[in-house]
Amino acid sequence: MSKLVLKHLLAIRWFHWINFPILFLMIWSGMLIYWAYPAYHLGPIALFPQWLFGLFGLKFRLAEGMGLHFVFMWIFIVNGIAYVGYTLFSGEWRYLVPTSLSAFRDAWQVVLHDLHLVKEMPPQEKYNAAQQIAYTGIIVMGLGSFITGLAIYKPANLSWLAALCGGYEFARLIHFALTMGYIGFFVVHIGQVMLAGWNNFRSMVIGWELVKGGESK
Amino acid sequence: MTNRHPEIVLPEADLNRELRKKSRRGFILGGLAAAGALGAYESVRLAHKENEVPWPQRRVLDFNGKLWKSYLDDSHLMPTYPESAIRYLKPNGDHGLDEEADDQGNPPAWDGLQLESPGASPVTLQLADIQSLPVQKITTKFCCIEGWSVVQKWTGARFSDFTKKFLPPGSHLTDYIYMATDGEDYFVGLDTKSALHPQTLLVWEQNDKPLVYEHGAPLRLIIPVKYGIKNIKRIGLIRFTNQRPRDFWYEQGYDWFSGL
Q1: Which residues of A touch chain B, with CB atoms under 8 Å apart?
Q2: Domain extents for chain A?
Q3: The whole model's pTM is what?
Q4: Can you give the pLDDT at residue A197?
Q5: How far apart are CA B137 and CA B219, in angstroms?
Q6: Residue A106 needs a FRET pair 20 to 30 A away by CA distance; which of A211, B14, B122, B175 works?
Q7: Host domain of residue B201
Q8: Measured torsion, CA atoms of residues B5, B6, B12, B18, in degrees rounded to the nearest 10
Q9: CATH number given to A3-211
């Protein structure tokens, strides 16, 4: 028999949908800041060439970028702490955190499955192993952005933190690399959501997911 | 484990009706929340601006400044480096340095440093007065607000020693300090706590050589707990004040505190 299952709790949905535009604003304002000193290259190739900044209209907006970054950081941090606190307190973390090293092997199987290279999915609960690693990893990345962000925000007042991050320059590099990681996460995440279909997406908005009858779990 | 993930089992038709109801409710509420968030964002963006930045955003930035000022301590230092870490420092910013050098390449004359304090008449100091203070040398990072940083060695006197010796008798330390080039083409506002930080120096030598004009000869400020924009060159005026002073880049939309 078909049934409705409350897949995503109300609080989690709020944290998720608050984070989405705020993270976008943090990346956007971060690009406005990065334009003023676009230091990173892969060999001779600039990671963000000037024409790309020009295309998105990101030039000569450093003050605006800093003004946005250091306001919306508060919402980003508070929302992130609230999410982690809530998942710990409610017990939801049990679905989200990989519990054994076999998660990495299972996650690889999921990747092969999603690339249509193998047929079987490894057994899973609410989230498969690849999702668990991604959704836990993104939180660790958020913590990394928070710490490296503080280090480059206050390299004198928090000089110990900058030292912990390998110095002012290296902290900026990690902060940048993590941002690239978010963009990569976003691309894969959107792709997977589109593949998973409407029922899945709807559950992130309304909470409830339709589980078709037949083989009930 | 408590059941945080309840299930609803109903006959097919009822289940679909229930799902439609929940969908309608969820998407309407979600849409309203999104519209509310967008409205809040737009109303901030369109709020009247204080020095290029919408005022609610200015409140947050000023709050950040207060927070970090209160956390600042004389023991919180910008790291120092060996002299082998010194690299070329690009002269960045020439506001207030628009006078031409003479035919011999000598910088234009400097009329001394005017010191103003509430309730006292202005005093003019010469470089020798500043150089009579205990000499400090520091090799530390100079951080530009653009994001780059360069290690430089500076020779000068602590600003805290300067105030002890030259603050006119009877006048007290104020909440803020205003510094400007002669003619006030460039000007910075500083909180007194940052100005009195032990790494804050009035500097006349860079990498063991006298300051050159492009870097602010004959006397500039080096304040490692602030971005480069606050490290004013060629100081002509220091004013103690209890009003938060004007600041060149603040008026262009940057943070007033701009601390590191």
Answers
A1: 1-7, 9, 17, 21, 33-34, 36-37, 39, 62-64, 66-68, 70-71, 74, 90-92, 154-159, 162-163, 168-169, 172, 202, 205-208, 210-211
A2: 3-211
A3: 0.93
A4: 95
A5: 15
A6: A211
A7: 49-95+110-252
A8: -90
A9: 1.20.950.20
